[in-house]
Design goal:
6-stranded mixed β-sheet, alpha/beta
């Protein structure tokens, strides 16, 4: 199993947490994992992008047009990092705007749960349910349980599980 994944969002949206979850899932499955993050102005709402490679890769960076999947925590980031996803790859976008990608309004779903902070996990659950990522839902649930702080564990699991049920 080899997969290259881009995660793109703004500071405070949880892109780095999703990166960590995917990396942990790969390790849990016994796969080699490389990650790289760019988050210079993230604390001020600037763009955050992570590269995750699962499988036998030598370098953590993904070339434009090479990613198998991209998770976009905000629609505007598709214009910034969408070209990293290869033709035939999967773009999974948090938006209510239709386009040439899988879309789910994770923000509204998170608001409906009363927890805007789980929009990232809803998007992750949606991506897993649509088989765009290397791992299945049980592996990710186990990783969320192990990785989440105690005070957020149930909420994080609830967000992920909500994403699994959404059709997009």
């Amino acid at each position: 199993m080899k997969q290259q994944i881009i995660i793109s969002g703004r500071g405070g949206q949880g892109a780095l947490f999703v990166t960590r979850l995917l990396a942990e899932a790969g390790l849990e499955m016994g796969l080699e994992v490389l990650t790289s993050e760019t988050h210079g102005m993230a604390m001020r709402g600037g763009t955050v992008v992570s590269h995750i490679k699962v499988g036998g890769f030598k370098s953590p960076l993904i070339r434009k047009g090479s990613a198998d999947a991209g998770l976009f925590l905000t629609h505007s980031n598709v214009a910034i990092h969408g070209d990293f996803v290869k033709s035939g790859g999967h773009r999974v976008v948090n938006t209510d705007i239709n386009g040439e990608y899988l879309s789910v309004d994770a923000t509204t779903a998170a608001k409906d749960m009363g927890a805007l902070l789980v929009a990232n996990l809803i998007l992750l659950g949606f991506a897993v349910s649509h088989r765009t990522l290397f791992c299945d839902s049980q592996v990710m649930k186990d990783v969320i349980k192990k990785t989440s702080p105690d005070r957020h564990r149930d909420l994080n699991l609830g967000g992920f599980e909500r994403g699994l049920t959404l059709k997009g």
